[in-house]
Amino acid sequence: MKTHQELLKKLRLLKEEAGSHSPSIITIKEGVPELEVKVDACFLSNPYATELFLDYFKRELIDTGGIKDLLEFYPSQNKVIAESLSGVIGIHPDNIFIGNGAIEIIQTVIQKYTKKKIVINIPTFSSYYEFVNDDVEVIYNKLYKENNFDLNIDEYVELVKHERPDTVVLINPNNPNGGYLSSEKIAHLLRELRDVKNFILDESFIHFAFENEYYDLKTASNLVYKFPNLILIKSMSKDFGIAGIRAGYAVMNSRRVQELLLNGFLWNSNGLSEYFFRLYTRDNFLSEYEAVRVKYIKETQEFIKELNQIPNIKVYPSMANFALVEILNGDTSDDFVFNMLIKYGIYLRTCSDKIGINGEFVRLASRTKSENKYIIESFTKELSK
Amino acid sequence: MKTHQELLKKLRLLKEEAGSHSPSIITIKEGVPELEVKVDACFLSNPYATELFLDYFKRELIDTGGIKDLLEFYPSQNKVIAESLSGVIGIHPDNIFIGNGAIEIIQTVIQKYTKKKIVINIPTFSSYYEFVNDDVEVIYNKLYKENNFDLNIDEYVELVKHERPDTVVLINPNNPNGGYLSSEKIAHLLRELRDVKNFILDESFIHFAFENEYYDLKTASNLVYKFPNLILIKSMSKDFGIAGIRAGYAVMNSRRVQELLLNGFLWNSNGLSEYFFRLYTRDNFLSEYEAVRVKYIKETQEFIKELNQIPNIKVYPSMANFALVEILNGDTSDDFVFNMLIKYGIYLRTCSDKIGINGEFVRLASRTKSENKYIIESFTKELSK
Questions:
Q1: What CATH architecture is B75-281?
Q2: ipTM of the complex
Q3: Closest Cα of chain B to A192: distance in Å?
Q4: A242: which chain B residues are within 8 Å (Cβ-Cβ)?
Q5: Relative to the CA of B17, which of A175, A239, B343, B350 has its CA 20 to 30 Å away?
Q6: Across the interface, do A54 and B68 touch by the CB < 8 Å criterion?
Q7: What whole-number distance in Å separates Cα of residue B200 and Cα of residue B193?
Q8: A248 Cβ under 8 Å from any chain B Cβ
Q9: Fold entry, domain A74-281
């Protein structure tokens, strides 16, 4: 039996090796097999949607033997999958680019279109500034904890007009805090910033946000027709809980889609991501998905409310499927994360590697109802001391 | 019941839409559901290896429920998979780059490293010249049917030294004819052309080539230590019959691997390709694979020998898992392909869209023994008239 200190040492080493991302749960399990990971609260996904997808997967691909064709044959080309996705997202196929995960699209648009200067709000998802070419100037627009990490729209517009970047990036809801800009505010920003060549809007967490009591899904994707500078990026890993499949898409100006497809991205989807995209267009799957989406949002909001009752932490407002939590018990965020992993088997995301965040912060994903309950109990136990 | 002419019209339309690649079998089945496709001889893969992979897949992922983790969680990052692959291919992990299929690597190296001029043998796999940036000069080195599409080494070296390109591309065995350059010749070319910045060697079909009676696998990958300009690209879709999974790798100078990983390719593998790469390193899988590799090579060479007996075609020598066949019965290659599909359900690859090939050519894949038998019988029936 390893001591707490020995486990800590091993975990610190794994974290160091992973750089600005967290070591995956597999890496943790392989590197520190003594640990029992009970809840992966680092992992941002709707677990009910994973179950739903797995039901279809089992019924339609495993039980029928159809999986063989998906593994053996070449998937369809990019524009064929774009055509099938077109109806369900209400966007013309010429404006859709299919990615091997959203991360491929982030890499591509940042490297291809950002030539001069980029304005990025921080804290944020690090790939947006890590993927820029060496000669691009990065302007960080800091969001302050004193303002709940909210974006001040007027100051932001002023900053962008002053800096004149070729690219701005907004993540809505933002990662890692979950701050949400209403669709009205996004439209306002697009109007104000129509001179910025690339307006990147990452809606990877938009399925968890809502503006009315019916939890209706809001997206800015159809603004692409009005604002040709809009590059909307959407991961499917979070809302559908299928990160291993690698599925994402972008909605953008048709000229850009054409330009990208002219010299590449021929078979960048795999057989399973093609299956997923086609499943996503089907009515029965969609209505079942809508039910688990709303169920998960309700549970997530309830979870955040309960977190708010726990002493020695501060929970920031979120419209995503996670909450940014400030640790006020004197621990560093890394030590708090390792401690919760060793003592309770709960794996959290430390924010110590994120730039633009002062203080000790962790990001905490909402999981299943029973897992959330276990998290609340463990946090309460640990933090009420 | 559609007439032959109506089916022909539909097929011609699908071919037009697919550009310089063939419409996939799924596109054909969806577009012309009246057709019964019995043998997909367009598809270049070892069907026995597909079966072997599916055995493991079913036993280890489906029966155990392990598939859930692969679909749900993020796969490992590029360098983690490179480390696991290192042992089996005998290359240091720093020299390995993992791709979302070989096609992603082709796109990346051609767009990133080819700045000026590229020398490409034709006929060849079209992506190599289609993916170049607009301002790159493409020099086509024509291979002649009169010479069995063999590369004349001395003339080639002379051409390259005269043209002074920054990139040369060799596919070994070559696609679409299967012509093979011995490992000795490849080493000679690398010595002669060490001043060319990027020496791209595509070994996607190398598992089907052999130089001795034991069918020992030959690869030039370890020459990367001696020739830092070597960029060796390897698809896993052909030898393992798993095109839907999207798995490929490159072996190159560690500086290049590092450069690529510095700004991207973070999660470009999916859960299944990671599973495949890890499986590929295991002794039991490897020895079973070696058996089906040799079995398939023997059957393929036997198939090519039998094709040679059929009148009104000419079969070119091949060390790959396909043969380039010249149609000498007066049909155009497109019409021959459509005809064989409508009358016999055999789907062939027309070469009408390939540049650098004069005459009517089709590419014919070796499939299972019984499928090959059916192809021989159908060809004999059709061409003996």
A1: 3-Layer(aba) Sandwich (3.40)
A2: 0.91
A3: 31
A4: 71-72
A5: B343
A6: yes
A7: 11
A8: no
A9: Aspartate Aminotransferase; domain 2 (3.40.640)
